[in-house]
Amino acid sequence: MQLTSAEEGWRSTIAMATQSDAPPNSIHGKPLNPGSQVTEPTVDDGQNAKAETKKESSPTSVFVNSEPIREEQVQNAVKFLSHPNVRGSPVIYRRSFLERKGLTKEEIDEAFRRVPDQTPAATTTQPVATSQDGQIKAPSNIQQQAPIQTLQPAPAGSISKIGRFSCFHWSHALLAVGFLAVSGAGTAVFFKKSVIPRLKSWIRKVVLEEEGLQKKYKVKPSLAEEAAAAAKAAAAAAADVAQTSQEMLISKTEEKRRFEELISMINVQLREMKLMSNAIDKLEGRTHGRIPMEEQDDHRVSWTGLRQPYANGKVDADSRSVRSSSPSASVEPSVAPHPKSYMEIMAMIQRGEKPSNIREINDAPPNPNQPVPLPRLAPRPKPWDVGQVQSTLTNVIQSQESSNGVSHESKDNQLNGDDVVPWWQRKNVRITEIDTGDEQKFGSSNVVSNARPVQRSWVPPQPPPVAMPEAAAAIRQPKKSLLQKDQLTDEQSLARSADVNDELQRITKLSESGGAVEVNGGSSGLNSSEIQKEENNSHLEM
Amino acid sequence: MPVFKTPFNGYSVKFSPFYESQLAVATSQNFGILGNGRLHVLQLNPTITEITSFDTADGVYDLCWSESHDSLLIAAVADGSLKIYDLSLPPTSNPIRSLHEHAREAHGVDFNTVRKDSFLSASWDDTVKLWTVDRPTSVRTFKEHAYCVYSAAWNPRHADVFASASGDCTVRIWDVREPGSTMILPAHEFEILSCDWNKYDDCIIATASVDKSIKVWDVRNYRVPVAVLNGHGYAVRKVKFSPHKMSAIASCSYDMTVCLWDYMVEDALIGRYDHHTEFAVGVDISVLVEGLLASTGWDELVYVWQHGMDPRAP
């Protein structure tokens, strides 16, 4: 993979830098940058103060990186970008790599400025050119070696496709060619052995006949006969020659055909192996979010391609691997075991089958120009909106809520029943209500106005008479848990400020004491310790 | 605690910001690999029942409720489109909009809680898009990530600031008034699947990654995380800050559990629920009802329960 070797280059430049420089400065991945940390607190305070005074319109927003450019990081980046392997990769992956190493935008831009620029067009055409060269080389070599002309176009065409895997197929092609040559030589030898003796014998016969004829020159028909016999023999020889040459041709064409078949079968096998390796990778869950493009093209079904929910781990190394993150030496997180049916569906799709339970659904909007309705309810203020910014908004909401609250309440009450507590609002629920006026500054989730509790769907029932006074006393004691949350009513909560680090917790009023006792009221046999334990559980609130 | 069974595998669950007893679930057929999708709208009174549901041609990966309209929902669909549904209209009039600009799957949507006028979509085509409900086309496209963007989250206090979490192992912080990202946090060594802001401290952001950890960062000093929360056995799929308690975080993971953390405490894990029998993929904390949690997973179940109680208790 390209980037791993470049990462090595990155690490070596870092090592060199740290050796040369006296103070060990920030190593990527272990961000300890004393220089920046010194500058940051001073910048922080200024920004914090500014952020508090001017809210949204602050030009020095907290969400901006205000570190100065670190020259060391820029130099490392320049070395990285100058690495020959890196130059072949698209610009966005180089940027992404540097971002992951902790460089800021400004540092990355500076590094790119310093490195002599390579246009993206050049980088993308380069790899294409090199691959084509490799492919063209192969057929030319074969052409030089093949003695027989007829086989040239076929192997050249098929070899160019598989030029990359030259080793295997070249030797195979050479073998085939050699075999054909040998067969040609063999037929030539066979020719020599069979034809020439025939010729010789024929000549000898003729000569003998000639001699015999000279003795009896009257025997013309015998001469003619002999001539005929010689002609027959010649014809037979010629026929033999023709036959053998034809057989040779046939064998050659057969060889050619078999060779082509072999090539195509090897191609098919290669493709299958590729698919299998991809499937294995996916089954092991190494791909995130997408699969290689060539697989999407292979499936001629109309759906746009697969999605793969990411599992853990890094992306597999295929032709698009440069696009993905290439984690360094750290251990890959273990892959979560996927459900069995998930694997089945993935395998089905790899094979090109579509799961049978998919329906054709038209989910287009029936009327895209449908006007968006007006809001019927005013937005409810969030618990974290402490009212500073939202003060004007809350005034508007007050008036709206008063009119909406009643209708809302009636709707929910119909579903609830007046006295039934919804199961999801029981026990540990803190329904925020404001009973006292001086808490108005801190808005709560439901109510904005002061001194008028908005009727919500769940009205806290009156706490029943306490069965066990010691239990009640135990309940009212503040708990020691770190996630402090008061069980008490307003007055008592204000009095006891245990380690509450969140002011809102103090304010959130509670009818929980009512709720809790109500639940425990049924089991009156509980002693105080058990009740305490129950309360402990309810302390783990959100 | 009541349970709802969905026909398809669950992907996301969100409580309504207007009604305490309403929530919506996004589901996809065949684990979201290939198939249809369905968006369910449920109500919790008296038990979990379905109010309505909408079918989509492709799986629904995420949803968000509108903060300005009580009846609007937005769904992120695996074919790259965003569909807007209006619950006040009959199902035959829905969806009211289909916004199709992403070239690949739309994986996350988030609605602005401050100005309440716009929403973001995060997509596997490496971009984040900004939309408003009334416009048929996106307002802006943020294209800087080098790989899939899995999640985008608005800052709860600053109307123009949001963060995006991507498979290129970085979280970017953006300001919609600026042309590009304003900060790049190389938060993890592996893909980052989710991010969320602290509702009570607008500079704190939590990131969840394939490396099984959740890291909490302060953007004012972003080189070193404020806290690293380990405890999940596999990739952490979603992270959510509590709307009621400043330092509480809920997370769900491929280890089939939903965990609760308090990042300010030494022993951060304060709750673990292992009710799911497959990947837990969606989790949400109710803004209106304190302590109410919901989760969904590939086991096709939606659980709603109070923190501290057993989700599977009847």
UniProtKB/TrEMBL annotation, chain A:
Bias (Basic and acidic residues) ranges: 531-542
Keyword terms, alphabetized: Membrane, Peroxisome, Protein transport, Translocation, Transmembrane, Transmembrane helix, Transport
Composition-biased stretches (Low complexity): 117-132, 322-337
InterPro entries the UniProt entry points to: KPWE_PEX14_dom, PEX14, PEX14-like_M_plants, Pex14_N, WH-like_DNA-bd_sf
All residue ranges annotated as the Peroxisomal membrane protein PEX14 central plants domain in the record: 168-284
One annotated GO biological process: protein import into peroxisome matrix, docking
Membrane topology: Single-pass membrane protein
Domain Peroxisomal membrane protein PEX14-like KPWE: 337-385
Compartments, record wording: Peroxisome membrane
Protein name in the entry: Peroxisomal membrane protein PEX14
Organism: Forsythia ovata
UniProtKB/TrEMBL annotation, chain B:
Annotated InterPro entries: Beta-prop_EIPR1-like, PEX7, WD40/YVTN_repeat-like_dom_sf, WD40_PAC1, WD40_repeat_CS, WD40_repeat_dom_sf, WD40_rpt
Signal peptide positions (record): none
Primary subcellular site in the record, as a coarse category: cytoplasm
Cellular localization per UniProt: Cytoplasm, Cytosol; Peroxisome matrix
Mapped WD repeat ranges: 99-141, 142-184, 185-227, 229-262
Family matches, as Pfam families: Beta-prop_EIPR1, WD40
Domain EIPR1-like beta-propeller: 147-261
Alphabetical GO biological process terms: establishment of protein localization to peroxisome; protein transport
Tagged with keyword Transport: yes
Keywords: Cytoplasm, Peroxisome, Protein transport, Repeat, Transport, WD repeat
One GO cellular component term noted in the UniProt record for this chain: peroxisomal matrix
Function: Receptor required for the peroxisomal import of proteins containing a C-terminal PTS2-type peroxisomal targeting signal. Specifically binds to cargo proteins containing a PTS2 peroxisomal targeting signal in the cytosol. Cargo protein-binding triggers interaction with PEX5 and formation of a ternary complex composed of PEX5 and PEX7 along with PTS2-containing cargo proteins, which is tranlocated into peroxisomes by passing through the PEX13-PEX14 docking complex.
Family (UniProt): Belongs to the WD repeat peroxin-7 family.
Designated name of the protein: Peroxin-7
Native species: Forsythia ovata
Source lineage: Eukaryota, Viridiplantae, Streptophyta, Embryophyta, Tracheophyta
